[in-house]
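Subject: Interface between my chains keeps coming out wrong

I've been trying for a while to get a sensible model of this assembly. When I model each chain on its own everything looks fine, but I need the whole thing in one frame so I can look at the contacts. Pasting all components below, labels as-is. Any help appreciated, I'm running out of ideas.
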Amino acid sequence: MPLPPLQPNRHKGKLIIVEGIDGSGKSTQLSLLAQYLRAQGKPVAFSAWNSSPLVKETTRRGKKKEMFTPTTFSLIHATDFADRMERYILPMLKAGAIVCADRYAFTAFARDVVRGVSRQWVRNLYRFAVKPNLAFYFRVPLEVAIGRILGGRDAIKYYEAGMDVGLSRNIVESFRLFQGRILEEYDAMAEEMGFHIIDATGSIEKQQQQMRAIVDRELSSSPPAPSPRRRSAPSAEGQAQ
Amino acid sequence: MNLTPLQFYGDALPDVDLSELQGKLIVIEGPDAVGRTTQVERLRAWLEASGHAVLDTGMARSALAGKGIQQAKDGNTFGPITMTLFYATDFADRLENEIIPALRAGFVVLTDRYIFSIIARAIARGEDRRWIENVASFAIVPHVVYYLRAGVPDLVSRVVVGRGQFDYWESGMDLGLAKDMYDSFVKYQEKLIRALDSMSDRYGFITIDASRPPEEIFADLQRSIAQLFGGMNLPAPPPVRAARRKQA
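Reply #2:
Try treating it as a single job with all components included. I did that and got this:
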């Protein structure tokens, strides 16, 4: 069975997203890009993974008490994503903003599958998501990412290390195995999803230059999106009747 | 009726083995104010009196998501997809952490609503049926699904007499179907009933006429359960006519 696609963006605004494993530097790059666009006076909106005011408290509690199964972990993140899509990303796209999203549905496609959730099921789960105009994948070798994480922050967290998957009892080893598998999933979908792959071992400046060049091209060359149309596919805007 | 070993509607849940489940899963479905909760309470007492351990569960009661759903409802800030997925999260948490463990321990699980209400609410809000059916396909196929069916006028009178007021969400006020709660309730419940009706054959609902007094509905449920689960030594109630006479 073919995997279900995302919804094309039929709105005035543009959707730019970044993906990559923890420690790939994607958040740094996205915030630099947002600065760049804002400096040009462009309307920029920003949405981070797992940040819905409606849902994040539930996610936080579930993580703290280690209550999640692969399925509930997947569903609560989809709920968070849906709330941001319905109440923020979609209205902003309609209003013509450049929406910058730090992580997107692809995070779930990679991570939830590694947790054992059915690939077909999680792809369907996010079918209401708008397809990004640009998706950047910050590709970094596992060891580099691990070096950045271990050097830069406090302890690795339970779910970040995939401790619930039971790959290893040692949290660093579990993190290594879990993120390694996520890396494989990202690589496997890169072509299908049209990711722009950025070598995230390069300098921050060089990565940002590459990113800006691609964004400039997209913003200047692409024709204006056709006006929104009614359609029957499931979407975050399909409910008004 | 499904007395073969339990199975999933779609892809299996990771790390869940259904082969060792010995309990019975009984679902009571139906629109708002149809009287599901009353029937679950009576069934529980009856089953326990007959020596069966019972777990009863219902929507938004999960340890994980119950509180979050309540807060979101209080704020009236639920988008339709968000609501659907929050309830699906709640259901998954109860399925994996309450329902399946209880079935493993040989309980009779009585559930007040199941995935069908989640699907019906999504359909009533214009979401794609295939999308939500696939999302909900991690559910296990119950042994039996009773669909308590009544017309909207019956539901209205139960709201007025029983609860004394219309509820924002039971009236589907988020859909903007009408300005006041009564008109909205009528339109929304009609949509829900249509959606539930449309699932009846596909999911093998046993439809119970719930426009009748609760005693008669209860007697129907008892008879059906006693018949389906013949090995459970359940005392069946007297036939309908006798029951009516007793009441009179």
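Reply #3:
Confirming on my end. The domain at 26-233 of chain B is CATH 3.40.50.300 (Rossmann fold).
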